[in-house]
Specification:
The chain is an alpha+beta fold and about 290 residues long. The protein contains ten helices and eight strands.
């Protein structure tokens, strides 16, 4: 695909992703999305699936259930209200869809988070009996990450990841991507949501020659020691792992954080595995 054609497709499908994220509370007309992309309905679904690896309907369902999981953990909203915001007219239908994705009912998911917000961490502790063994110190070589900046709620960084992977697909670079990386510059507990900055991107197996001409943001990850913690479960509970790392592990470790932001490495794909099976490695740079 010629670069000009790839860029043209990329921009059109970015408009679709923007529209989906901006209208998750509303019924989404798939034919309207085709119009936004300026693509014939006869070809729209195949082109979207070719770029993003799932149908538009699957994207909408996945994003709504991810947002519902966050609402269950972070807000006191009744399950009925959360179900309606996710596009389900009955709690029964919402329960079935949520259970199919998360392997647990919405009510049980909320109760587990309330009873033990560090459930993921404790499940690791139970096998070792030593909290210090949960963290691995890794010495890594420096590398670069190219990606798309995100401004606002970290839970919405998927918006920028969708754009990034759409860009990679339209430029036939998907096979060159090594690992998805998210870089997070501020503490969400002490920074206004609108001021939160992050980067959604990836490492490349072979760095593209023309990366500086793509408009992507490039970040340098410095070599050195990193405290690495593996989080298994929904992205909605990642903040609990960060809290434990900084509150419990770091003060006892004898180490200090280096002057660089933490980053996350995403081991599997949210399009391919259930949310409760997502694996994320959290990297904290150390002096």
């Amino acid at each position: 695909m010629k670069t000009t054609t790839a860029t043209h497709y990329e921009r059109r499908f970015e408009r679709v992703i923007d529209h989906i994220y901006a209208h998750l509370d509303q019924p989404l007309d798939l034919l309207e999305l085709a119009d936004i992309a300026c693509v014939s309905p006869y070809h729209w679904h195949r082109m979207y699936r070719g770029l993003y690896g799932e149908t538009p309907a699957q994207t909408v369902k996945r994003l709504r259930l991810q947002r519902a999981a966050k609402s269950l953990v972070k807000t006191p909203l009744p399950v009925k209200v959360i179900a309606a915001k996710a596009g389900y007219s009955t709690i029964q239908a919402f329960n079935r869809a949520f259970s199919a994705s998360f392997g647990i009912t919405p009510t049980a998911y909320r109760h587990r988070a309330q009873e033990d917000p560090f459930d993921t961490i404790h499940s690791i502790q139970s096998s070792t009996g030593n909290t210090m063994n949960n963290i691995e110190i890794r010495q890594i070589q420096d590398f670069h990450v190219a990606g798309i900046p995100h401004q606002g709620d970290y839970m919405n960084i998927g918006h920028s990841f969708e754009k990034f992977y759409g860009w990679a697909a339209s430029h036939q670079l998907l096979e060159q991507l090594a690992q998805s990386i998210g870089i997070y510059y501020e503490d969400p507990a002490s920074t206004p949501v609108a001021e939160l900055r992050s980067l959604a991107g990836a490492r490349f197996q072979q760095w593209p020659d023309n990366i500086d001409d793509t408009g992507l943001t490039v970040e340098h990850i410095q070599a050195g020691d990193y405290a690495v913690m593996r989080h298994t479960g929904s992205y909605a509970t990642l903040e609990d792992s960060y809290n434990w790392l900084y509150r419990e592990w770091l003060p006892q470790s004898g180490r200090e954080p280096a002057d660089a932001p933490p980053f996350e490495e995403y081991i599997n794909n949210p399009r391919e595995v259930a949310p409760n099976a997502l694996i994320t490695d959290i990297y904290i740079p150390l002096k």
